């Protein structure tokens, strides 16, 4: 059985797209916008230089074709690629089948101890410098509560809490 190979290029190559990738949301900007912009530009330049010096990483791993088939079906993908046969009710993909883009995040996980990972669990070898080290979006604030000017009145006439009302719901 030959291994399946995956070469990953996890980051955009242009400077502008890296700035868009690492720039904080307006709500997270500090009080000094000029300082943040200069900091973002500096961090983006260092990040681009670091990514170019590291280059793509190639990891070789023996994968189970059956698990590749099941994972694709879990993602609601009946084909690995547009020109390949359907995966449902078929044999697993043949040995040597290339792993589709993005699957490397599941199969080719970093070989680090948990203490060597970033705060959000990512591979720090491809993380930008502070303050842009977190990739996972923060939980948004809850939506404002809706206030009705004239809430409806609940009276026995508009509530159906009789045993007959419950019997309508039973099979």
Structural features, described:
Residues 124-171 are annotated as: Disordered. The protein has 171 residues and is mainly α. It has 2 domains: 4-63 and 111-167, no CATH class; 64-98, no CATH class. The protein is 29% helix and 6% strand. The chain is built from 5 helices and 2 strands. The chain has helices at residues 15-22, 33-54, 65-74, 104-107, 163-167, and strands at 4-8, 57-61. It has a two-stranded antiparallel sheet.
Secondary structure blueprint with pairings:
Elements: E1 4-8, H1 15-22, H2 33-54, E2 57-61, H3 65-74, H4 104-107, H5 163-167
Antiparallel strand pairs: 1-2
GO molecular function: (3R)-hydroxyacyl-[acyl-carrier-protein] dehydratase activity
Biased composition (Pro residues): 139-154
Region (Disordered): 124-171
Task: Provide a compact summary of the structure.
29% of the residues lie in helices and 6% in strands. The protein has five helices and two strands. Residues 139-154 have a biased composition (Pro residues).
Structural class estimated from helices and strands: mainly alpha
Helix content: 25-40%
Number of strands: 2
Number of helices: 5
Largest sheet: 2 strands, antiparallel
How many domains, as an integer? Answer: 2
Strand order of the largest sheet: 1-2
Provide the low-confidence segments as ranges. Answer: 1-35
As a percent range, the share of strand residues is: 5-15%
Topology as a string of helices (H) and strands (E):
EHHEHHH
Oligomer: single chain
Radius of gyration: 26 Å
First-to-last CA distance: 55 Å
Mean pLDDT: 70
GO molecular function: (3R)-hydroxyacyl-[acyl-carrier-protein] dehydratase activity
Region (Disordered): 124-171
Biased composition (Pro residues): 139-154
